[in-house]
Design brief:
single chain, 124 residues, alpha+beta, 3-stranded antiparallel sheet
């Protein structure tokens, strides 16, 4: 339903013609939050770590998917060279020295305290 319509559902519960045209032209954007993106990143790492060795990576879906017009897989692409199993997970909130990093309202926030004790207290 677009903003110019007033809940114009027909007898079958369908949107009006005007709403159907708007929906066809502008597909809905997925609601991917920063928290969801980080969770997906960490899930990818966990997925790749479940294969007990590099020789077992042939069972990984990413070692079987080739990029279009290429014979290189996701894990062997020239600029990639590193398996997600070797990546470090993102953990938020985090404490690094006197700086606490966290997400609030979809934004990455960093607070640097004057003393490490203050940072630990803020982190907890």
């Amino acid at each position: 339903m677009n903003k110019d319509c007033n809940g114009c559902f027909g007898a079958a519960g369908d949107d009006c013609q005007r709403c159907q045209e708007v929906d066809e032209v502008t597909p809905p954007k997925p609601d991917i939050t920063p928290e969801l993106a980080i969770a997906a990143y960490n899930t990818l790492i966990d997925y790749c770590k479940q294969f007990d060795s590099r020789s077992n990576c042939g069972n990984c879906i990413f070692d079987q998917i080739c990029y279009p017009e290429s014979d290189e897989t996701v894990c062997t692409l020239n600029f990639y060279h590193i398996c997600p199993a070797d990546w470090d997970k993102i953990t938020l909130p985090s404490l690094n020295g006197n700086t606490v990093t966290y997400i609030k309202d979809g934004q990455l926030k960093r607070v640097t305290c004057g003393r490490h004790e203050e940072a630990v207290e803020f982190y907890e």
